[in-house]
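Researcher: Here's my situation. A collaborator sent me these components and asked whether they could plausibly form a single complex. I don't have experimental data yet, so a predicted model of the whole assembly would be a useful starting point for our discussion.
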Amino acid sequence: MLKIIILMLVATSIQAAQPVNIKTPEMEIGFTPRSANQMGSFYEARGFSKEMRDVLSKQCFITIDIHNISHKKIWLDLSLWKFTVGGKPIKREHRDYWKQRWQNMGVPLSHQSTFRWTLIPETLDYLPGEHEGGNIILPFSDKPIGITATFATGENKQGKKIVVSTDKLFCAEDKE
Amino acid sequence: MKLKQTLALLVFVLGIFSGLTLNASNSKLPFGIRHYDIGSAKNFSLNDIDGEKVELKHSKGRWVFLHFWASWCGPCREEMPAIQRLADKMKGEKFQIIMINTAEDEDTVFEFLGTINVDLNSLLDVDGQVTEVWKPRGLPTSFLINPDGQVKYQAIGGRDWGSPAYINFIQKLLQADAKS
């Protein structure tokens, strides 16, 4: 019986942290939760200090993958995205927040630079066919995460807006 | 008579427009390359893996392929053999490849270049600050800088630089400069 319960718990948590992939006529977008161990091993291999890794291990990493499959330019602007946990709005920290935090901790410039490269840019224009991605960092939670991502389109951002949303994401947790 | 003149004028105008269309399609860039006219290339001074100091400003007079990469970046790894093919094909031309590794140490870069079996040198932007100034859109990113030191194009993501589409594009840039 205990085995069955454990198996059910494992199955539930594996299912909970599954990636979410959404396709619209204009774009394909993927949201993939990353666990603290997944991110920590990458940062450890790059020589990041334990202090820095400890801070990061308390966050919720989600890799965003965006592919423009339309014939128009698509504009990413993270300031237009909304995030919720359990239905309540939460704040995503801007990359400048992390820059300041690492500076305050005296993190070497090389590690600050590598860290920034793992984040998706705050703004980015995607030409037709372009495919780029990166991570966003949210406060860790075991409740469902909602993301509503709004994109402008067209050369001057005057085209029809694209709105993509999911409320089926969970932060990835490492299994003991 | 007037009708003939009108028809001739119409044919002439259509001819001009079809010519324009043809030129526009001829100037279509290979996938992943975009115009990036941001003016003068910002100079930098970095050491390569042999400890030699390299300054961008000394590369004036030839097209420069400036490439930002890191060993942990999957597309960078995949792209390296294509850059090697580009280097081989452009040997002897007024064309220089400058690679900049972003924020890794010398041992990591040396080992990486050894394992992927390419004969390419790289500059070491150990603290990542030159990369911060250049602000590539992502890794890998390549910039094409003309012989006057003006940034002209940016290429995002791994590209098959050794393929005819990219080689022809770069050769046309060189030919256009030779003519002017």
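Model: Some features of this prediction you could bring to your collaborator: Chain B has a mean pLDDT of 87. Chain B has two domains: 1-29, 31-179.
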